[in-house]
Amino acid sequence: MAPVGDTVTDAGAVDTDTTKAPSGTIGTSAPDSNASNASSGSATLTVGDQSWTFDNYYCLSGPDNTGNAAVSFSSGAFGEFDGGQIQLDASVVDLDEQGRFEGDGVVQSVSINDVEDFENPSVSLNAESGAFGTAEFVIQINGDTVTVTANFDDYTTDAEIETIPGTLEATCGTG
Predict the structure, then answer these.
(1) How is 106-156 classified by DSSP, letter by letter?
(2) What are residue 18's phi and psi, to 5 degrees?
(3) In the chain, how many domains are there?
(4) Which of 8, 30, 43, 72 maximizes the CB count within 10 A of its CB?
(5) Torsion sign over Cα 20, 136, 124, 51
(6) What are 34-40's contacts with CB under 8 Å, separation 24+?
(7) Smallest Cα–Cα separation from 66: which of 38, 86, 89, 44?
(8) Residue 81 placed within a domain
(9) What pLDDT does 173 receive?
């Protein structure tokens, strides 16, 4: 998918009173769900002046659904950019394996990466929060809506890592 748009949207204030991720599956049960009544979700990630839009966004919530005791929430999508395959990922990992969505020991991350060319990626933007101390951002889940505002590090440059503001606005698929 080619970048679209040229502005960064503001997701507004972050509500941080949720202490556990919702239990159960949000959206499709897997990225390749074949359920006849399932519909794909959508997501737009905007970082700086570039935006990527996906029409196959999926979400899994709770360690039983993510398949990993440390992963409270996993979501993502796949697409094409500059002729290569890219992956969008937004995840919440509880290092204490308690299924928490935020607090000490809970890491929030959002990334978009070239999954074909690791040596010379067309895109490699990552935001991580909570790994060391207080979280700078929290992935917000409200029903089937996922939003986050964060600063992304650009790993495609040889210069010092550049921090770029960005937002993710997504709707989980139904399944």
Answers:
(1) EEEEEEEEESS-SSS-S-EEEEEESSSSS-S---EEETTEEEEEEEEEE-S
(2) -85, 125
(3) 1
(4) 72
(5) positive
(6) 35/175, 37/174, 37/175, 38/173, 38/174, 38/175, 39/173, 39/174, 39/175, 40/173
(7) 89
(8) yes
(9) 86
64 by DSSP, 3-state: which? helix
Q: How many CB atoms lie within 10 A of CB 107?
A: 17
In a domain, 5, yes or no: no
pTM for the whole thing?
0.77
Domain with 114, as residue range(s), is 41-171
Q: What are 128's strand-pairing partners? A: 109
Written as tens digits, the pLDDT of the chain (175 aa) is 333 332 222 222 222 233 333 333 333 333 443 334 457 899 999 999 999 999 999 999 999 999 999 999 999 999 998 888 999 999 999 999 999 998 889 999 999 999 999 888 999 999 999 988 778 999 999 999 999 999 999 988 877 777 899 999 999 986 5
Domain assignment present for 29: no
Nearest to 25 by CA among 78, 72, 70, 69: 72
pLDDT confidence of residue 56: 96
- Block residue for tokens 């995840």: 91
User: CA separation (Å) from 2 to 44, 62, 75, 86?
Assistant: 12, 32, 21, 11
Examine residue 120 and state whether it is found in any structural domain, yes or no: yes
